[in-house]
Amino acid sequence: MKLVEGEFLRGVGPVAVLKLLERGQMYGYEIVEALEKRTEGVLAMGQSTLYPMLYNLEAKGFVASRWDENGSRPRKYYRLTSTGKKRLAQDSITWSKLTTAMEALGLTQHIAGALA
Predict the structure, then answer these.
(1) Cβ-count burial of 115 within 10 angstroms (0-12 exposed, 13-18 middle, 19+ buried)?
(2) What's the CA gap between 14 and 23, in Å, rounded?
(3) What gap in Å lies between CA 19 and CA 2, rounded to an integer?
(4) Distance separating alpha carbons of residues 43 and 59, to the nearest angstrom
(5) What's the chain's Rg over C-alpha atoms?
(6) What does pTM read for this prediction?
(7) Which residues are CB-contacts of 87 (< 8 A; sequence separation ≥ 6)?
(8) Domains in the chain and their CATH numbers?
(9) Do the strands 63-68 and 26-27 form a parallel or antiparallel pair, or are they unpaired?
(10) Cα(88)–Cα(110) distance, rounded to whole angstroms?
(11) pLDDT of residue 61
């Protein structure tokens, strides 16, 4: 499956990360792996793409981070903040409207067929 690149990834990436963090805290590589696995590679991104995105989400107050020194090596965990939950709710409405609009144009039928 071809992955999403460029402008599309800049648009969907932050929403996808917030949605993953809605389930609970995760560290960076765990997010990379979850995006790869849960989207069948479509939203795969490297750490060089993910970490600037996480820093940006943190600067906006959508996620918070903490270091965990326990275990084999230190890991920085990210979690969704209350502001991030509000943003995710807004973005979910926007994505629903976008999906409906694309469906009205007949695009989602083609996409669903391409993913099969």
Answers:
(1) exposed
(2) 15
(3) 21
(4) 23
(5) 15
(6) 0.82
(7) 18, 60, 62
(8) 6-115 (1.10.10.10)
(9) unpaired
(10) 27
(11) 98
Both tokens of 64, joined, read 């918070």
What is the predicted pLDDT for the residue at 113?
47
If DSSP codes are grouped into helix, strand and coil, which group holds residue 65?
strand
State how far the Cα of 67 lies from the Cα of 56, in Å rounded to an integer.
Answer: 18
Question: What's the token pair of residue 4?
Answer: 């999403």
Nearest one of 32, 9, 19 to 91, comparing CA atoms: 19
Using the structure block, give the residue that is written with the tokens 């669903």.
Answer: 112
Residue with tokens 């979910």: 92
Q: What is the pLDDT along the chain (116 residues), one digit of tens a residue?
A: 455 556 666 778 899 999 999 999 999 999 999 999 998 888 888 888 899 999 999 999 999 999 999 888 899 999 999 999 999 999 999 989 988 898 898 887 645 444 44
So what's the pLDDT on residue 43?
85
